[in-house]
Amino acid sequence: MALTNRPRTVGRYGTAAGTGTLAAFLLVAVGGSPMYVGWAQGHTDPTGAGGWFLRLLAWPAWRWHADEGLLTANLRAILLIVAAAALLYLLPGPQVDRVAASGSQFLSGWGAYALAAGVAALLATLLGPGGTLYAAFQAASAGVTYGFFAGWIVGLASLGGRA
């Protein structure tokens, strides 16, 4: 006897949390890559909305080589992916709706990514070398800003999966 009213189907689409996690991974992998970060810094206008947004997408910047250690430099990007995946799976909105609402999936994915970016920035700063609480709060503010403006991409990706 099934515990849910939904039939268990195996299709070619993943879950909303799975597709959202894939989008979060791609945002960090591509947007935070050293090649994209260099391009965004050198070829965009920081005073225009488009240039500002393209530079913002480079926020979870990760590096191949770091002076203070590879893990420390890349902790924010790693924590962002892990926290986004956890929050996408934990947010109950789309899973408990009687009718799988696309608006619920979209907002759940967007909110999860914004919260994950803030938490990742806060923890990475606190766990990094010389991390103060004030610096962690400032980093969390930057992370939430990034998550708010880039999280809609994860929200849209969440629409592609079943609840």
Key attributes of the depicted protein:
single chain; 163 residues; mainly alpha; 7 helices; 68% helix
Helix-strand blueprint:
Layout: H1 16-31, H2 34-43, H3 49-56, H4 70-90, H5 93-96, H6 102-127, H7 133-158
Helix pairs in contact: 1-4, 1-7, 4-6, 6-7
Which class best fits the helix and strand makeup?
Answer: mainly alpha
Poorly predicted regions: 7-12
Radius of gyration: 17 Å
Task: Write the element-wise H/E pattern from the N-terminal end onward.
Answer: HHHHHHH
C-alpha end-to-end distance? 20 Å
Transmembrane segments: 12-37, 73-91, 112-137, 143-161
Keywords: Membrane, Transmembrane, Transmembrane helix
Detailed description of the structure:
The chain is mostly helical and 163 residues long. The chain is 68% helix and 0% strand. It is globular, with a radius of gyration of 17 Å. About 4% of the residues have low confidence.
Summarize, please:
The chain crosses the membrane at residues 12-37, 73-91, 112-137, 143-161. Keywords: Membrane, Transmembrane, Transmembrane helix. With 163 residues, the protein is mainly α.
